[in-house]
Amino acid sequence: MGLNHNQLVLSVIIVNYNVKYFLEQCLCSVQKAITSIDAEIIVIDNHSSDGSLEYLPPLFPSVIFLVNNKNIGFSKANNIALRHAKGDFILFLNPDTIVNENCFTHCISFLNTAANKGAAGIRMIDGSGKFLPESKRSFPSPISSFYKLIGLASIFPGSKYFNHYALGNLDNNKTHEIDVLAGAFMIIKKEVMGKINGFDENFFMYGEDIDLSYRIKHAGYKIFYLGETTIIHFKGESAKKQNINYVRMFYTAMNIFVSKHYSRVTSFFFSLFIWLAIAIRTFTTLFSRIFLKMHFLNNKAENSFTQSLIIGSSEEQNEINNLLNKVGFQKIILPAVDSLKNITQCPSAKKLFFCVGDLSYSEIIHFIQSAPNYRFRFHAKGSKSIVGSDSKKGSGETKAG
């Protein structure tokens, strides 16, 4: 990685909790993205029980692994890693992401152009290629939060009024000054993190990114959304969105935020809207579980006949085939192709396995946004797993040999 131990340009910090295969693929992409940067990667594990610490360190000897003896939450874990970080820029990155080769250099170059550019987020898509609206956000207000919670923001995604929280009126593919960073990808100047004293550890999970953004802006720095470069955030790996406990945890965090930063009157109305919306969301979640169960059963029946296509060189195709054979993958495998342009040779393909070697992450990310009729799986050449997620609301899929 070409490390300069006196001073690094970038420190990448990743909090891990029981997602070792997604993190494996994330680290493979991060290593490719830092080849031209003096950088370090710090993984802090929140007492995972899935064998992460036995599995990952031997595969990534250059990565710094820090270990907590219990799950202390996202904010505390990031603060511990931050104290070890040596970079001028700090990237807080989720483990269920895949980054493209140029996104770090793009972000650093942008932030370096002005002293008051304090932090940046990035354009994110889910594992099916769909844009994630939380990539760019405004600070929550009682009315915008209420519209989001009851679903009006989803019904009118481009509305400045109904979807103000996700800044739906702003072009997803351009750069904009925004209010709130998305916790999955936050690149921040280290001097800024020093001035605001890191994360507020009262936030165990959720809301800490909004609070951090608020304090960055209050310190006089600007935050930007960079829409010209894209990463994948699988997001649905743990299917939190359909969990009532998730709903309560998320909106409890919102209450902590508004109580901390807003007036007593605004906080009162905000809390009123939030608890009303929680009641509505809890009711709709119960029905959505039934729908998702039916959807899962239908997909399970459909998946037994899925025709799958492997994209990569002959060596890479053999690597993926060997992994699939080890896990007893029974679906129909079509003749493999060596490039994205040759996918059309197999019109019956429904599921695509990408091997990142000769193919780049940038090429794959560009392709999946324009190919909505496929399901995608990702494997870095030389890694031991395959990951993917067909919906930000569904459970992710992993295979490992």
Oligomer state equals single chain
User: What's the average pLDDT?
Assistant: 86
Structural class: alpha/beta
Write the H/E string, N to C: EHEHEHEEHEHHEEHHEHHEHEEHEEE
Low-confidence stretches: 1-5, 238-242, 300-304
Individual helix count: 12
Number of domains: 2
Compact description:
This protein has 401 residues and is of the alpha/beta class.
Could you give the topology of this structure?
Elements: E1 8-16, H1 20-33, E2 39-45, H2 52-59, E3 64-67, H3 74-84, E4 87-93, E5 97-98, H4 103-111, E6 117-125, H5 142-150, H6 152-155, E7 176-178, E8 185-189, H7 190-196, H8 208-218, E9 222-233, H9 244-261, H10 264-303, E10 307-311, H11 314-326, E11 332-333, E12 351-356, H12 361-368, E13 375-380, E14 385-388, E15 397-400
Helix pairs in contact: 1-2, 5-10, 9-10
